[in-house]
Amino acid sequence: MSGWTVEAAKTWYAVRAWPLGCNFIPSTAVNQLEMWQAATFDPVTIDRELGFAAGVGMNAVRIFLHDLLWRDDPDGLLDRIETVLGLADKRGIATMPVFFDSCWNPAPVSGPQPLPRPGVHNSAWVQSPGMAALEDPSSRPRLEAYVRGVVGRFANDRRVLAWDIWNEPDNGPEVAQRDAATLAAKAALVKPLLADAFDWARAAGPSQPLTSAIWSGDWSKLDRMTPIQQLQVTSSDIVSFHNYDKAEEFARRVAYLEAFERPILCTEYLARPRGSTFQAILPVAKAAGVGAFNWGLVRGDTQTNLPWDSWDSPYVDRPAGAWFHDIFNADGTPFDPAEPIFLRAEAQSSV
After folding, report:
1. What is the DSSP letter of 147?
2. For residues 88 and 309, what is the distance between their CA atoms, to the nearest angstrom?
3. Pair type for strands 163-167 and 94-101
4. Distance between CA atoms of 218 and 236, rounded to whole angstroms?
5. How far apart are CA 266 and CA 138, in angstroms?
6. Which residues, including other chains, have CB under 8 Å from residue 70's CB and lie 6 or more apart?
7. Which residues in 20-38 are b (16+ Cβ under 10 Å) and which e?
8. Alpha helices in 243-337 (DSSP H)
9. Is the pLDDT of residue 153 over 90?
10. Residue 184: predicted pLDDT
11. What count of Cα atoms within 13 Å lies in the side-chain half-sphere of residue 281?
């Protein structure tokens, strides 16, 4: 099923303000399921923390859904999405929902979620779909109903910025389990489902663009990308990517993607100890017209303020140094007071 033309994508982007935002999960949620399930859905915290985003000039957020939410309570999920869209829109923020995700725990279970592991970055995040569903052909109708149902409900909703079909589809479980054979076997299962998911979303008739971000490897030419990356880029109406490197590498990646002549969004960046900072990245992104979504807003149960190396060596009895991701404490005080000032200036200068 064909997507948008280059001209249609450019026209869509031309009338929008420069997208400046973050990946958002409330500080009270340890993962996607805890954010959205009825028992732990926390609109009061969501509203307050979206206020922090609006206060620094952000106009967009990327949020992660989960297929088990649809399986267990489709009407409730749609109602809660409606609530979040309304809370965000009230503050001038558009929303980019993400349907599927290949990162971290491959065996998600709905219901009460585990407490965060002390000292560990994003210790309870879960894949969607989990490996059991990914390996089971009988799960396809349910996954199709999920994508079609959510897109169909909000297909013409101006509060939705875009639909992110799959987060890092060629990623995998925890670092210690990411051997080549495991990732290759998973990729063989993911690729046909990724193609179907794009088709399911498109068949629901959205007025918003579809995308899925590439995140690693050689992007210098299409034929140097992996088969999954080729599918992501050629199926996307707008191109998106992730990059946690310094400004020079960020700029190099953008230059590669400009060959597709479509609007570009960086839907993940910000790793302060690696040189991926607001001050380094945003001037490059804005000069290139690339929208930018950093990872994390408020330090909370995901613990993404901690470095990636906490997966192997938790920060329990030692200082973690500069925050890796995130901007604010739960009370609204920033990790670095200079960052909100810089963000507001960047947002205002783009108007």
Report:
1. H
2. 33
3. parallel
4. 18
5. 34
6. 77, 142, 145, 146, 149, 150
7. bbbbbbbbbbbbbbbbbbe
8. 247-257, 278-288
9. yes
10. 81
11. 31
Q: In DSSP terms, which residues pair with 62 in a beta bridge?
A: 23, 96
Q: Determine contact, residues 236/208, Cβ cutoff 8 Å.
A: no
User: What is the residue whose two structure tokens read 């068949």?
Assistant: 203
Task: Write out the two tokens for 45.
Answer: 């915290």
Cis peptide leading into 129, omega within 30 of 0? yes
Assess contact for 169 and 128: CB atoms under 8 A. no
Q: Which two tokens stand for residue 75?
A: 């009407």
pTM for the predicted model, two decimal places: 0.97
Query: Which residues are CB-neighbours of 14 under 8 A, at least 6 positions away?
Result: none
Average confidence (pLDDT) over 60-78: 98
Q: Give the residues across from 61 on adjacent strands.
A: 22, 95
Report how far Cα 6 is from the mean position of its chain's Cα atoms.
23
Note whether 350 and 17 are within 8 A (CB).
yes
Distance CA 348, CA 351 (A): 5
> What integer pLDDT is reported at residue 190 of this predicted model?
96
Copy the structure tokens of residue 259: 């060959």
- Number of CB atoms found within 10 A of residue 158's CB: 11
Contact between residue 263 and residue 269 where contact means Cβ atoms under 8 Å apart = no
Phi and psi of 334, rounded to 5°? -85, 155
What's the rounded Cα separation, in Å, for the pair 282 and 351? 15
List C-alpha distances in Å: 122 to 104, 173, 175: 9, 12, 12
